[in-house]
Amino acid sequence: QAAKPHVVVLATGGTIAGAGASAANSATYSAAKVPVDKLLAGLPELGQVARVSGEQVFQIASESFTNDHLLTLARRVSALSKQADVNGIVVTHGTDTLEETAYFLNLVVRTSKPIVVVGSMRPGTALSADGALNLYDAVSVAASQDAAGKGVLVTMNDEIQSGRDVSKSINIKTEAFKSQWGPLGMVVEGRNYWFRAPVKRHTNASEFNIDEIQSLPAVDIVYGYSNMNTTGIEAYGKAGVKALIHAGTGNGSVAAQAVPALRAVRASGVQVIRAARVPDGFVLRNAEQPDDQYDWVVSHDLRPQKARILAMVALTKAQDAKSLQRIFWEY
Ligand SMILES: NC(=O)C[C@H](N)C(=O)O
User: Fold this and answer.
1) Is 267 exposed, middle or buried (0-12, 13-18, 19+ CB in 10 A)?
2) Is 95 a residue of the active site?
3) Is 15 a pocket residue for ligand 1 (Cβ < 6 Å)?
4) What is the pLDDT of residue 2?
5) ipTM for this prediction
6) Catalytic residue among 12, 95, 97, 249
7) Is the minimum distance from the CB of 119 to ligand 1 under 6 angstroms?
8) pLDDT digits (tens, 9 = 90+) for 144-157
C-alpha cells in the first residue's frame, strides 16, 4: 500500500479550537482553547486520508490577527511547502478574519501544493459542532493532487471555496462562507469534486513572495455612510498610512464632502482605493468618480478587507496608482 500523503496542520486558534460550558452553548464560548494535538487526536478518521502532523503556531481569536501574525504564518507555510516530505498544508483559523489570511497566503506563498484554510462556526463542545467535518474535509483536500495549483482554498460546510473570493457572509449559521462567484467544488466523505478553477493570479503565478517581504505598510479602511464626516480620512492621512481603502456606498460612491478630503490625502502621497460596502458586485473605474483624473484605484470585486490585504502586498513592490490598478485587475 502506498504511503498516505503527509499533511501538516498549522493551528492558529479560533472557534474550531473553542470550548463552551455546555453543549447548548453554540454562540457563548471561549475561542482558541483546545491545542492542536487534542484537535487531531479527537479525529482519528484523519488517518484514513493522510498522515497528519500538527503545529501550534498561535492560539488566538482571529479578530485579533495582526500583520505580524500574517507574516509569521505565511513564512511557516512557505517553508513547509518547500519540504519534500510535505504534500499539503492546512491552517486552522477563526472565521472572523479567515478570508483575509487565506487571501494573503494566496498572494504570497509560491507553491502549487494544496493549502487549505479552515474554521468552524460552533465550538467542538457544542451540539452539531461543525469543526470536525470541516477539518476532515480540509485535510482530505490538502492530501489530494486534484487540489494542487488551485490557489489557497477554504473548506467550510462541505464546499471548497477559493480563498480569494470567499467571505464570511453570515454570523451564527454554519453556512457562513460564500462567494458571489460560487464554490469551486465540494467535499463528500473525504473525496473532492471540482467544478471550476480560479482565473486570477495566485501562489506559484504570483509576482509576490513572502520570502522577500520583511514588513507590510500601513493600510486602513474608512466606511461610507449618509452624513459621513471626514474626520477619519484626515486622521488616517495625518497618521501616515500608505493607502486608504474607501468602503463606499453602492458602486463605491463617495459622499460629496468626502471627495476633497480624499483628494487631499492623495495629494499628500496616500493611495486612495475605492471599494464598496455592498457585499457583492464590483466597482467600475471612472464610474461614480473620475478615478483617472484623481489618480485613484478601484478594488475590482474585492471587499474592503480584502482590498486592504492586496494593497499592503502590492505596495511592497509598486508605488504608483497605475501599477496598483494593474495589480487589482490581475489578483
Ligand atoms: N467562528 C469563529 O471562529 C469566530 C471567532 N471570533 C474567531 O474568528 O476566532
Assistant:
1) exposed
2) yes
3) yes
4) 78
5) 0.97
6) 95
7) yes
8) 999 999 999 999 99
Confirm whether pTM is higher than 0.95: yes
Q: Report, as ranges of residue numbers, the positions in the chain whose pLDDT lies below 50.
A: none
66 included as an active-site residue: no
Ligand 1, pocket-test mutation among 12, 63, 101, most atoms within 8 A of CB: 63
Return the residue whose CA atom lies nearest to atom 1 of ligand 1. 121
